[in-house]
Task: structure prediction
Amino acid sequence: MGTRVPSPVLWRGVAAAAACALLGLLSYGRGGRVPLLGWIDLAIHEAGHVATYVLPDLATAMAGSVAQVALPLAIAVRFAVRREALSALLCLAWAGTSARDVSVYVADAPYERLELIGGMHDWAFALGPEGLDAIDRAGAVAAAVSGAGLLMVLAAVAGCLATPFLQARGLRGDPPAVVASE
Result:
């Protein structure tokens, strides 16, 4: 007979899966930024440029996009190390939506139609003649980044749904609650 999953544990997993799916739908279904989270991604993006300002221009141009995906992934890893599975998976979904945001920016490189907050178009520079001289590959790069992001979101949803069952079997998940001793 199978292992019984306590109802609150199951509902936490279902709620986290729904949150991850909602993030994915807002990003991939609407084709735009996730409200509020998009502004956080933008702040991280710009901080990535600032943090790498002393590096070569190509690295600095790409650092913003790398940072906005890498930071949520790093936070996900931190939660995973602490065995906080649902928190890690929510951050994985966030990274996936951030990757979708980056893919829109990459796809715009040949056209430079996006409204920017100032300065040059990072990906037009990075893929242009002063950078990698691969502007004709912008669509393929964008599709790969978008696909990777979608896989992150789908993995997060599946992981959230699987986590309660794995926890019930003692295989992984959130650490047991600490009980205060008397």
